[in-house]
Amino acid sequence: MKAIILAGGSGTRLWPVSRYGLPKQFIKLNGAKSLLCQTVERLAAVVPLKDIFVITNEAYLFHVHEDLKAVSPAIENNVILEPVGRNTAPAIALVLKYCLEKLKCAKDEVIFICPSDHIIQPVGKFAAYARQAEAAAKTGSIVTFGIKPDRPETGYGYIKKGVRAPGGGGVSKVEKFAEKPDLKTAEKYVAAGSYYWNSGMFAFTIGTMLAEFKAYAPEIARRLGATLAKMTADFKNMPSISIDYAVMERSKKAAVLPIDILWSDVGSWDSLPEVIKPDHDGNVKVGDVLTLDTKRTIVMGESRLVATIGLKDLIVIDTVDALLIARRGQAQRVKEVVEILKERKRKEVVEHLTIYRPWGYFVVLEEGPRYKIKRIVLKPGQKVSHQLHYHRSEHWIIVKGTARVTLGSKTMLVHENESTYVPKSTEHRLENPGRVPLEMIEVQNGEYVGEDDIVRLSDIYGRKQ
Amino acid sequence: MKAIILAGGSGTRLWPVSRYGLPKQFIKLNGAKSLLCQTVERLAAVVPLKDIFVITNEAYLFHVHEDLKAVSPAIENNVILEPVGRNTAPAIALVLKYCLEKLKCAKDEVIFICPSDHIIQPVGKFAAYARQAEAAAKTGSIVTFGIKPDRPETGYGYIKKGVRAPGGGGVSKVEKFAEKPDLKTAEKYVAAGSYYWNSGMFAFTIGTMLAEFKAYAPEIARRLGATLAKMTADFKNMPSISIDYAVMERSKKAAVLPIDILWSDVGSWDSLPEVIKPDHDGNVKVGDVLTLDTKRTIVMGESRLVATIGLKDLIVIDTVDALLIARRGQAQRVKEVVEILKERKRKEVVEHLTIYRPWGYFVVLEEGPRYKIKRIVLKPGQKVSHQLHYHRSEHWIIVKGTARVTLGSKTMLVHENESTYVPKSTEHRLENPGRVPLEMIEVQNGEYVGEDDIVRLSDIYGRKQ
Lengths: 465, 465
Hints:
The first copy, chain A, is of the alpha+beta class. Helix content of chain A is 22%, strand content 33%. Chain A is built from eleven helices and 28 strands.
């Protein structure tokens, strides 16, 4: 069985922590590891690490590499690259092609598809269910995971269990998929006992899914005839359609494995108490938080001290450059805030002050008239593009590690507590030849200090102007 | 008449904006100027600028100089310095001595005492009342200003008006001073029509107050016999007592001038809507604020974007390093928060990230292991002490203006976009010889980067180790 993690989404429902540039799967929510890292580690209890792959697109590629490497450097490159986002059906078609052509899978190999941004506990129980699903998939079913609901949740789609499926093992046919219900309908579903939350995870053999694409999504099936390279080149012409709509809701092979486990898609800040246990006052407190007479309130701090007095049923999400305060039960309206900010072209919905690059990251510490100050961290062995700026000079001060600096035709090493100066219009390159991260402070000075004043002469990551 | 502003208080009731190091009188609340600046400007409508003095202590001396200078460089040094804080009675005794000895005032000179952190509008009306008070003070009364209450406020002390005072002009004898009442009592006071809020402003002649000190505070009166220098040297032995308790509540000369004016002591964040007009939703919004479905809520932002959803009756006060969120009506509990933070020795109740020094200010942009980054602003003509550090080197990058830098026995000029390096244990001095503020970035590097690693060899501001 191959485990494939879908990590191409750009979820901003947890703004201001998740942003277009750092969507939900990459954020740390309930511990020191990103949701993607947690997903990889969970799947590692089901299949060997080498059989776990992540499908994502260019924008998130180095986040994925980082997260995979954090789990094991051996799987850093277990990435399937979508040239552009085209929803889940084309993504799964690409996965099938990749498995057949690159991994030389047989058609009876089971593929286990899993979102990258959910929380599921405990891992052992999950692994046992995954193996049940694998067994059922081998009999020709497309096995979805139906979570046993513990409340009439209106934020999830539901799956109605039908008659027992062939192959047994607790798997039933899907009678129907139901859209997100209103509260009354959700209450009926929960009372009925035959409805389950659609978790977005499913398992099938390559052969089964190829047949279903052929039957229900011929436009996608047709492209599966080409090589991986051709399919990739042509990917932008794929219809943008979800696997649910394209296949699952029509397929007669859809089955459901009811599972009873702690599961959350953390679809909004309102669902945080599902995954971080509230204290005896009903509060969830993360960070440097002081509460007086505060109940049923979620406070997620980052770097700042947060003090609360007399609050009830609130959500406070604090980041370095944006603060959200919402009444509990209204957190889904974050999307309205994100829409407004997007229209206003506010950077706070796109990026954090910490900005990730293939070579490492930088933090803008301050920007003022004619100057900008950054802390730059360059990973071992990496190099920033050979470049020049027309409008700014740069002062570099190394605070940790050793830099190899090229200025014009000269190359030199600059050590901790040493500095160098890059005059305007001078070709320069910064490298970290060492074994530990290089940290330096850059003070830019000039009539214009925008990121777009850059002429890239060469770049090992293939970036152009 | 001399106008004396009491600016030695360390009010933190508007935390996190006001802190021990920057109390309420120095913060900007309802515009571009500090409350102290606004107080000076208001008094300038009553007396010539040269007759306005501020009494404060060492800790706030340069804030006071800055604020006075902002109004007029001519009065920068109109400061009476309390060696230590000993509450208002000793402060007023010191004022009397200062007026007699330094300003050569006669005993029939009227002294107008005024807190530094209140908001009063409009200025013209205030000036007319102040002149009425002056006239009444000349007849021997100690004239308090009683604000006509527009609500049963429980946060203020009240003054009960008695029979008409000699000298007339709308001034009555004080029948009694009443402590902060409970709501029921406050309602009675307002209904009675003869009770006024005690505004903390009062006017008297030097002779009157000397006599009252003699009658009711002999321990203070005795010290008034010495010279200003002796009285100052002995100031720490003064009893710490308020003028209200020591004199006003006992004096038979206490009078009240009822005044009908917009007045607020901005005693807590709850009172902010008294001085900043709420919008049609009842919200007060300062800074970069986006509200959805939010009513009767105060949001004061500073540098960050603040988004709110579905809030009602809340107070959100956001600063760079501390955030307060409180239910309206509970803002007086900020003092509990401040107490807890003080016990925990948290810097967030003492200083802001921007720290003021006699020569200018600095902002800590970031501090990490083995490094600290500051932006330093040095005022024209100022110089930082001649100093050295045993544990850190410093890289200085000038981003605006020109610096005169002394390193060991060498002195040089460093210009915008130039840098210099101060090695560990090297004597150095930084000066701004120019006409515009000098702005520079300092990157400290070393095994210890605490502020206390400093050996001051000489200092024009008289600071020692």
